[in-house]
Amino acid sequence: MRNDSEARTPATHRYALLALPGISLVPLAPDIAIESSQLPGGFRLSLADRIIVATARVLGARFLTSNKSMRAYCKESHVLLA
Q1: 20 to 30 A from 52, CA-CA: which of 7, 35, 74, 80?
Q2: How many CA atoms lie within 13 A of 38 on its CB side?
Q3: What is the pLDDT of residue 31?
Q4: Cα dihedral across residues 28, 19, 64, 58: positive or negative
Q5: Average model confidence (pLDDT) for the chain?
Q6: pLDDT tens-digit map of 15-33
Q7: In 3D, which of 13, 74, 82, 24 has the Cα closest to residue 49?
């Protein structure tokens, strides 16, 4: 049984992910925020999902998700899928 000091919180999980090679945290820059509000097509997902897709578009980054709606949109809108 794990004690409280060994429990993984969401924050420690994020830090572990950020330690992986090729993973980085990107600040929400104005161009990303604007792009998220002007995505082409009928993209009807949450604001958070729109910001994630906009970040990939603006940075030309590869995008990895298991969300089928986001994958379909990325294929239509020239976002690189990993």
Answers
A1: 7
A2: 7
A3: 96
A4: positive
A5: 82
A6: 888 898 988 888 999 999 9
A7: 74
Lookup: tokens for 28? 């929400």
What is the spatial distance between Cα 20 and Cα 47, in angstroms, rounded to a whole number? 26
Nearest to 59 by CA among 21, 17, 20, 25: 25
Residue at 13: amino acid letter: H
| R_g of the chain computed on alpha carbons | 15
Query: Could you tell me what percentage of the chain is helix, strand and coil, using 3-state DSSP and rounding each to the nearest 5?
Result: 50, 0, 45
Whole-angstrom distance, CA of residue 29 vs CA of residue 36: 11
